[in-house]
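anyone seen this seq b4? input:
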Amino acid sequence: MRVVGIDPGTKSFDIFGLEDEKIFLDESIPTEEIDRDPDRLVKLLLDVVPIDVVVGPSGYGISLKHISQITNEDLFQIVLVKDDDVGLAVLTGLVKLIKKMKDTKLNIYLIPGVIHLPTIPDYRKLNAIDMGTADKLCCAVLAVYDYSRRHGITYDEVSLILVEVGFGFNAGIAIEKGRIVDGIGGSKAGLGFLTCGGLDMEVAYLLGSFSKNILFTGGVKTIIGDDKLTPEDFPKVAMINERANLAWEAFMEGIEKMVRALKTSVKNPKAVILSGRLSNIPEIYKEL
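predicted toks r here
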């Protein structure tokens, strides 16, 4: 079986194809390019047909649905951008891409986010939307599969916490006995590289008008005041710059607090698994 998955990230859209556990497609396209020219990704898919199933870019997620059945309401649920808001490349590009993909004859499905799962108790969903986007859900499933295979145990013996350290956001997912039971999404977690993370409600009140852009600001780059800062340079700058060190401490402690919070939902996690773009940076990986 030939399958392709698309991860709509803040920095890039990543496209990955497998055929019987062999990689046949592994591409990354900058998010701003997708916003300008979504046909580029569509062409990439059409160039590698036949494809049995494509897991399309699903944003915050919807109940499992074929792309041919996607409505305007579904598109809103996927990006959660109000009509009077400008939006950002990752969100506007995502909508453009889904509309383009809908015009193809490819077998594409949009998938749920963490909050849509019946394995999470309803009381944990109160006053929540972002418990983990659809791509975070996929990472959690992969973590269960990988941990099970490496340790020679069944899925229902896997209990762990997945920590995603992404370019824009951090997130955490609690897995108990092979099932996802809780999640803290990037807009609710601590300080991220781009995002301010979960806001004090009094801060939100004083901000006045609240645009989607706020979700992508207030993080490490904003605190340091360097819009050109890369994740790779963050650890080096934190050693010599006071504000950068402040951001470093907040960034790391935010992740630790998130893990400790999720241990309320999974009593005896056997591991904490790291994933995401920033987890590949040696200094960040070592500190975590």
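Residues 242-262 form the longest helix (21 residues). DSSP finds ten helices and ten strands in the chain. kinda curious what u guys think
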